[in-house]
Amino acid sequence: MTPAPSSTDAREGDHRVAGRSAYEAVIERLSKASVDKHWEPYRDIPWDDPEFLVDPADPRWELPEVDKLGGHPWYRSRPPEVRAAIGLWRVATAMKVGLQFENLLKRGLLNYAYRLPNGSPEFRYVYHETIEEGHHGMMFQEFVNRTGMPIRGMPGPLSAVAQVAPWIPLISTELFFVFVLGGEDPIDHVQRKVLKDERAHHPLEETIMRIHIAEEARHISFARHYLRDRVPRMPVHRRLMLGFAAPIILGVMARIMLAPPLAMIKHFRIPSNVVSEVYLRNTAAKNEIRDSVGRTRELCAELGLVNALTRRIWRAMGIWAEPR
Ligand SMILES: [Fe+2]
Ligand SMILES: [Fe+2]
């Protein structure tokens, strides 16, 4: 059994690598790390340990006061077991949406790998990543099952539209890896924030998050290095298209990953004025969406994908901030 990491690893450093061979060395290092440091949900998580059992009334599921919903007077006036159930519902929904995104991602990675030529260094790494995402899907679904709650993922129409994602690599592999970052970066942003908030977390939630953060650091690093290697070599017209598409994909993805769960709103009869105050007319909620794509936004700027024209799209999608 490999214990979950005891601390949150720093993000994979993605120092600019000069030239093709340095890029290939990064892929090799990531592949080796996938062999040396990986976790398997049914070997490394003690699901049936009494400490790890999920009780929806456990006060550790309660949302903290600093949370947008957790600090709202409506939430604070609910009985403790309802506050805990709402908190658990939200964690489980994030895992369900996460596993659906990762399902699309795996299919896209396999579509990408299908066409790779013999000897391609990306092939092995992409298979490592697909396998890790397979483990994440099992880990997230097992958690959802153990809540006993009727958790739903993405809303139906959105889920239908999302089925095009695995085919993006056939049009543009660069756009596909922007989509990958569009899902992975917001999840990573939220999970790191949760672990840093110094509250007592349920050990199962904490173990899952630590394992996920550690493995996602490699996936995010690969996507960023891939874009750094490929985008500068793209023909100008394709790079322009990518510049237009990137903020649209990122804006939509961040909203999908951070949206309030509609089934939860219905189940707990959260009044519409509360929903609107917490999620729609709330500057903190808007900033959260903007900040969750911060690292990808900076990467796009560095790669020359942001200009006066495309910046308007970033602004319209609500995900623009001046570079630090
Ligand atoms: Fe994952
Ligand atoms: Fe990932």
TrEMBL record:
Keywords: Membrane, Transmembrane, Transmembrane helix. GO terms for molecular function: oxidoreductase activity. SUPFAM superfamilies: Ferritin-like. The chain crosses the membrane at residues 240-258. This is Diiron oxygenase. InterPro entries: AurF/CmlI (IPR025859), Ferritin-like_SF (IPR009078), RNR-like (IPR012348). The keyword Chaperone does not apply.
